[in-house]
Amino acid sequence: MQIGCDPKSDSTRLLTGGAPIPTVLDLLRSGGTPALEDLVHPGVGGVLCVEAGGPTPGIGCAGRGIITAFETLSQLDAYGVYRPDVVLYDVLGDVVCGGFAMPLRGEYSDVVFVVTSGEMMSMYAASNIAGAVARFQDRGYARFGGLILNRRNVAREREQVERLAGELGTSILADLPRSPAVQEAESMDRTVMDALPASPMADAYRALAARMLEVCGHE
User: Fold this and answer.
1) How far apart are CA 131 and CA 104, in angstroms?
2) pLDDT, tens digit, for every residue of 111-140?
3) How far apart are CA 47 and CA 109, in angstroms?
4) By CB neighbour count within 10 A (0-12 exposed, 13-18 middle, 19+ buried), where does 46 fall?
5) Residue 150: helix, strand or coil by DSSP?
6) With contact defined as beta carbons under 8 Å apart, do 143 and 130 qualify?
7) How far is CA 162 from CA 116, 133, 189, 204, 212, in A?
8) Model's pTM, two decimal places?
9) Smallest Cα–Cα separation from 41: which of 28, 51, 32, 33?
10) From CA 58, how far away is CA 53, in angstroms rounded?
């Protein structure tokens, strides 16, 4: 199950062939209590897709929207009904309020992985998230699992991210190359794994998935 926690609601787009799915907040705003099947949509490879959504632009709090979406999924017992093997929460890089920190809580997540490039603002955001995880550690929140280097081909990129990992007391879990396969698959409204399964980029994603499961303690 993949749950998009960005107000842009684009986390699962390639898993659904480019078609946007109704967000939890949009359905709640339309009135009444939505059914679970209105919120959870099957995507490529059997991945269950959910988008939390966000407030009307210029009105309301995006963090509060995430809290509402999570509460709704819990009330409808989404995890008990679908019993997913793995749940991925795709959270934007700036943990700016308690709403955006909600997916880090222990009742939802076990491990937090941070995707970063060697660009300064990306590493700054990564450091902020790692700091938030450290502050919440004594409150039953998820543990920090490491950095995922998503290359932008900036100068001394690996060196920069290795230095950041050292400062955070963690390691680089995987080093993903910058590949045109990503844009090629996106142009087809498909994931790399679906559109180009034999590509080196797909192999890199497989290795990343295996490493993440290893860190999480799953076979």
Assistant:
1) 12
2) 999 999 999 999 999 998 888 888 877 777
3) 18
4) exposed
5) strand
6) no
7) 11, 19, 33, 19, 18
8) 0.90
9) 51
10) 14
